[in-house]
Amino acid sequence: MSCIRFLTKHSPSSSFSSSILRHIRFMSNVPENTVYSGPTPQTANQRTTLMQLRQKHRNSKPITMVTAYDYPSAVHLDMAGIDICLVGDSASMVVHGHDTTLPITVDEMLVHCRAVARGAKNPMLVGDLPFGSYESSSDQAVDTAVRILKEGGMDAIKLEGGSPSRIVAAKAIVEAGIAVMGHVGLTPQAISVLGGFRPQGRNILSAVKVVETALALQEAGCFSVVLECVPAPVAAAATAALQIPTIGIGAGPFCSGQVLVYHDLLGMLQHPHHAKVTPKFCKQYARVGDIINKALLEYKEDVTNGSFPDAHHSPYKISEADAEGFSNELQKLGFDKAASAASEAVQKLNATK
Amino acid sequence: MSCIRFLTKHSPSSSFSSSILRHIRFMSNVPENTVYSGPTPQIANQRTTLMQLRQKHRNSKPITMVTAYDYPSAVHLDMAGIDICLVGDSASMVVHGHDTTLPITVDEMLVHCRAVARDAKNPMLVGDLPFGSYESSSDQAVDTAVRILKEGGMDAIKLEGGSPSRIVAAKAIVEAGIAVMGHVGLTPQAISVLGGFRPQGRNILSAVKVVETALALQEAGCFSVVLECVPAPVAAAATAALQIPTIGIGAGPFCSGQVLVYHDLLGMLQHPHHAKVTPKFCKQYARVGDIINKALLEYKEDVTNGSFPDAHHSPYKISEADAEGFSNELQKLGFDKAASAASEAVQRLNATK
What would the pLDDT profile of B10-50 be if each residue is shown by its tens digit? Predict the structure, then answer.
C-alpha cells in the first residue's frame, strides 16, 4: 500500500501504472506492461529477465550460464551474479553417477528444480526436459514443460534437438506461454543415434544443418539456443545468422554467451572414472575435489586419533551439580559403569580447562 | 568361475564353502555363513560390514561417519576411507534449502540414496527415515525401512527418538531383517515438541532419559546409536552403559565414533542465512564455499571479457576446406552474415595459432 502511495507522489498520473509495473517483476517471462501483476513484493525482484538478456545480447555483452542442482550451488550462483542458472539433465551424470543423461526422470528433475528455485533469487532459472519426457508428441512436451514451471518453479525450459517434431513441440510450448531455450550440435540425449558423445558440425553438411536447425528453433519462438561441441567457425556462423543469443559449450569464443557444468568447472569430481570423461573444452577454475578429499582425510585422522572434538567443539554443558546428581541417579538404577564414566568425563573436562 | 577355481586350488575341500564365502560380502547385514550367497563378484567386496564396526568398537578404535547426498560426495567418502556413509534427512536443509528436516519425503530420500549407493563401494550405507514416514505405526515403519533398502540400496536405516512407540517400531524393523541405528538427544524431527534445535540432557532428568532411551534402543536390537547435542559427560555415560557403539555429533569426545554433516565440515554453504546456523560443534576442515565463490567469479570475469574459451578450450575443428565449403553453402542459402562470420572466425583462429 505505502509503496503505491510513494509511487503516486513521484509520478504523473498518466504513467502511474507503468511506473509501478517497472518496479514489479516476478517472473522473467511476464511482459512488463501487464495490467494485473499480483501482490506487491516488499523488495524489488532482482531476477534476471528475458528483457535483460536481450539487452546484454544487443550490447554484445557476453551472457554467463552455469548449471546447478541443489540449494548450495544455487546460492553460489546467486552470489556470483551468474545470469542464467540451468537445472540440467547433466544431473544424471554428475549427481546421480550414471554414464549418460538418459536415466533421469521428470520427478527427479523436479526435486532438483525445487531445491534450486529455493536458493537462487537472481539468476534466470531454466529447467531441462529430460530424455523421454517430450519426444512422443507435442502434448507430452507441453505437459512436461508445464510441470517444470508449475511444480519446479523454473522460469523457462530447455529441450534438445532440431528434428521437425522437436520444432513443432518447441512451438507448442511457446504457444502455451513457456519460454524455450533450444539446444543444437551435440545433443547428449541423442547419443544413441549419434553413436556416442561426438562433436557435430565437422563437415559441410553437418555444419549447415546446425545453422539451419538453430534458425528453425528461432522461428518456433525460442529465446536463445545452446550450441554444444561444434567447431568455432560453425558457432560463429550460427551466432551471426540468429537474432537471438547463442550460449556455447565446447563451441569456441564466438557465441553470445557460455555455459559450463558446475562440477566440471569447479573440479569437483575425483573419481578415476570421471577423470576420464572430464571434457577437454572445460577450464577448471578450482580443484574443489582435491580440497574435499584432503579435508575428509583430515577429519578421519582427527577422529581416529581422538583430537576431534576438542573442548572448543564440545559446547553443550551440564552443571557440576547436575552431573553429580546424574551420576548418583545412574548408580541407583544399577548402571555403575555409566556412573563412573560420567564422573570421569567431568574430571577430564575440568583437567583440560 | 575362475574365481571359484582359484579358491579350490588353494583351500582344502572341507573349508571350501567358507573360504569362498569369506571373500563374498554383498551387504553388510548378511551373516557370513550363508549357504547361498548369490552370483560371485569378480573382485572381493570391500564394503564395511557390521562385523568390522563391532571389531573397531571392541578395539576402541573410533568410527568415522559423514553424510552424503549424491554421487560426488559418495565418491569422496569412498576415497577418504570413511567407515559409514549416512544419507541423512539433513538433505532437507543442506540440499533442498529448507529450514528444518521436516519437509523431505521418502521419494526424495530414495533419490539421494540411489545416487549415493551407485558409487560408494566401501562405506556402510545408512539411510534416514524421514519425518512422517514411520511414526504412525510399526507397519508403516517397516514398510518405509524396506523401501530404503530395496529401492534405495542402503545397508541399514536410522530412525530418531526413543518414545515407546519408536522402540516398538525399531524392534519390528530389526525383526524384519533390517539393521537399525538409533538416534537420541537432540532429534531434529522433533523440534516441534523440543521447541527448536535445543541441546538435550542438560539436567539430571533429561540426562538419565538419554541413557535409558539408548539402552532401550539397544534392547530393541539397534546396532549403534547416534547421540546428538548432549553434554560430554552424558555421552560418556551412555557410551559406557551400552555394548553397541555410540556415534556422537556435538556430544563431546567420549563416544565410540563421530559424525558430521558433509556441507558443514567442508564449509560449503556461504548463504548469509546459513552462516547463522552453522553449528558450534562442527569444525570446518576446509572453506570450500569460499573457493567455489572465487572460482565462479573468475569464470564470470573470463566469459565477460572474452578470455574464455581460449584456443586451448576450443578443441573441435573443421578442416579449412570444409570451412570454406560451409561458407559458400551458407551464401547460396542466402545467409550472408553467417557466411562472412564463418570466414572471419577461421581467419581469427589462424591468427591466434
Answer: 444 444 444 444 444 444 444 444 455 455 455 667 889 99
Q: Where are the domains of chain A?
A: 48-287, 299-349
Q: Which of the residues B57, B71, B106 would you substitute to probe the A interface, choosing the one with the greatest number of A C-beta atoms within 10 Å?
A: B71
Segment (H or E) for B217? helix B204-220
Measured between beta carbons, the chain B residues lying within 8 angstroms of A327 are: 237
Cβ contact A189:A160 at 8 Å: yes
- Cβ of A238 and B313 within 8 Å? no
Number of Cβ pairs < 8 A linking chain A and chain B? 385
Asked whether the beta carbons of residue A250 and residue B314 sit closer than 8 angstroms, the reply is: yes
Give the gyration radius of chain B's Cα atoms: 27
Class of domain A48-287: alpha beta
Mutating which of A260, A303, A319, A337 best tests the B interface, going by the most B Cβ atoms within 10 A?
A: A303
Which residues in chain B are closer than 8 Å to A315, comparing Cβ atoms?
Answer: 250, 280-281
pLDDT at A296 over 60: yes
Cell of residue A136, nine digits: 512422443
Burial class for A237, CB neighbours closer than 10 Å (0-12, 13-18, 19+): buried
User: Rounded CA gap, B101 and A329, in Å?
Assistant: 34
Which cell is B213 given?
A: 532411551
* Nearest CA among B341, B74, B102 for reference residue A95: B74
How far CA B196 is from CA of A246, A295, B99, B200, B213, in Å, comes to: 49, 30, 11, 11, 20
Across the interface, whether the CB atoms of B299 and A306 are under 8 A apart is answered: no
Identify which has the larger pLDDT, B276 or B286: B286
**Summary mean pLDDT of chain A:** 86
The string of DSSP codes covering A41-82 is: PSS------HHHHHHHHHTTPPEEEEE--SHHHHHHHHHHT-
Contact B253 A314 (CB under 8 A): yes
What is the Cα–Cα distance from A247 to A314, expressed in whole angstroms?
50
- Closest to A197 (Cα-Cα) out of B38, B315, B204: B315
Q: Is A353 exposed, middle or buried (0-12, 13-18, 19+ CB in 10 A)?
A: exposed
> Do you find a cis peptide bond into B309, omega within 30 degrees of 0?
yes
Letter for the amino acid at B83? D
Cα(A58)–Cα(A81) distance, rounded to whole angstroms? 20
Q: Are B40 and B52 in contact (CB under 8 A)?
A: no
> Which residue has better confidence, A236 or B269?
A236
**Active-site residue, B228 included:** yes
- CB atoms B72 and A238 under 8 Å: no
In the CATH scheme, what is the homologous superfamily, with its name and number, of domain B50-288?
Answer: Phosphoenolpyruvate-binding domains (3.20.20.60)
User: How many C-beta atoms surround the C-beta of residue A126 within 10 A?
Assistant: 28
Rounded CA gap, A1 and A15, in Å? Answer: 18
Do A237 and B114 lie within an 8 Å CB cutoff?
A: no
Closest residue, chain B, to A271 (C-alpha)? B75
Residue B195 near residue B137 (C-beta atoms within 8 A):
no
Nearest to A185 by CA among A255, A248, A94: A248
Block residue for cell numbers 575440568: A350
| Cell numbers for B14 | 572341507
User: In this complex, which of A71, A239, A304 lies closest to B64 when CB atoms are compared?
Assistant: A304
